[in-house]
């Protein structure tokens, strides 16, 4: 990949630059929306599927992909309305269509009879919950990781507005507006980076991590950002969460304001087959960017423990 020279862009050797995929394809979802899919790493290795969150894209996974492709075949795709995937019509936003998209992607990249470890961050975790009852997803899932996510009550638990605003009505109204706003974010600037760092990252996140996150989030279109925000504001996936029967790990940063640890603890208690809750001290919402090595360690543990031995011969022996 050539070096990117535009102001504020990442250099080609940056951990926040996405490696060139080994293969790219387009998958048509149930309603015809075109989903952009990338395949990284060597063929024939255990498969890990990465599902990004609200306002992100496959670029979000660059540091984790760079870590995992030494040992795994890694699949990443752009959720509808994000990145290079199609932007649906007005009615094409719901947790049901997120499940449709995941089902279509898995059928395209995980052959029948094989399984993968599925990793969902934020809205990607909600996608995994929404798809818990889909046969094509269940049969292809060896284990899952729900990272920095929640199954419902997002407005009530979000902590972006400082705690000195004690009125729940005021807090809900502010957070609903934050999620559903169609105001353009404009170019990345010092002020916008500071605001983004406050809202979704920890105080200790590095300037490079903040800049990478800002580039990704600012690239999301206003219409899909707002439409998905409205879906998140009314999210209720508690029943779907309990439908995830595969071994599932839960991960959260202790400084996450968007989906604070109360969500992770509740999900861990509700899951039928929870295999661990990891709380990353001092990290914010963007855990795969802020704590790449820790997230990769959890993923490697899930592959080691829950993919068949014959699919797991190349995995480095590591402890989580």
Structural write-up:
The chain is of the alpha/beta class. It has 13 helices and 8 strands. Helix content is 38%, strand content 15%. Helix 6 (168-180) runs antiparallel to helix 9. The protein has an 8-stranded mixed beta sheet with strand order 1-2-4-3-5-6-7-8, sandwiched between helices. The longest helix is centred in the first third of the chain and has 15 residues, at 95-109.
Shape label: globular
Poorly predicted residue ranges: 1-8, 311-320
Strand content: 15-25%
Biggest sheet record:
8 strands, mixed
Number of strands: 8
Find the structural class using helix and strand composition.
alpha/beta
Helix-strand sequence? EEEHEHEHHEHHHHHHEHEHH
Overall mean pLDDT stands at: 89
End-to-end CA span:
32 Å
What oligomerization state is this entry in?
single chain
Helix content: 25-40%
Radius of gyration: 18 Å
